[in-house]
Automatic annotation (TrEMBL):
This is Vault protein inter-alpha-trypsin domain-containing protein. Residues 1-84 form the VIT domain. InterPro entries: VIT (IPR013694). SMART domains: VIT. It holds the Pfam family VIT.
Amino acid sequence: IEARYSFPIPARAAVCSFAMIKRDGTRVVGVVQEKQEAKETYNKAVAQGQQASLMEQQTPDVFQVSVGNIPSKEQVKIELVYATELSEDEENDSVRFHLPMHIGVRYGQAPASLNTPVTSSSKSPFLKVAMSVEAVSPIAKIGSPSHAVSTELGPDPSLPNFKELPFPNYARVSLSSDSALDKDFILTIKSAGLDAPRCVAELHPSPVKSRNPSAIRVINFGGSEV
């Protein structure tokens, strides 16, 4: 069985990683290749009877994932990680997270395969959204103007330092839908200090013994750089 799924992502998002997780837990991490080379690699693997996956960019905002040689009654998970900016909602003094759900004119021409209704024999919900939110100060208000969601203040209990984290600065949001969504998911977060200058640092995953940065860049919320 070969499955294909086309979906939009935010226009300014940057894809960071792509992986296929098999039923036995085996994790196959994707590598970046030229478009034609990637297709040939995928087709060759499928022809040899291997379970393989391919992610292609169809338009600037629309991607397609193909998974080949899926055994009958087996579940395969696809993991996609991308980074995107939160937009500012000046009227409500909040920030907005936008998750595209529907391919329409805004996201390019929808593939012909999506012109028919999506059906499934599975009893599981069509879509599940689970989000963890962290703010620099206590969250005053959080919600979705587009969908009915469940919200709960506090950090994720699975975090190793759960009890040490500032409780009001965190929130969890969940959504479960039994039907295909025909509009995008939007989440708004209101918290003090959202426009304050800040600096974020991440530890590189590779084991480097010493790091001596030659330059430091500071970016304020207004977009100017120092």
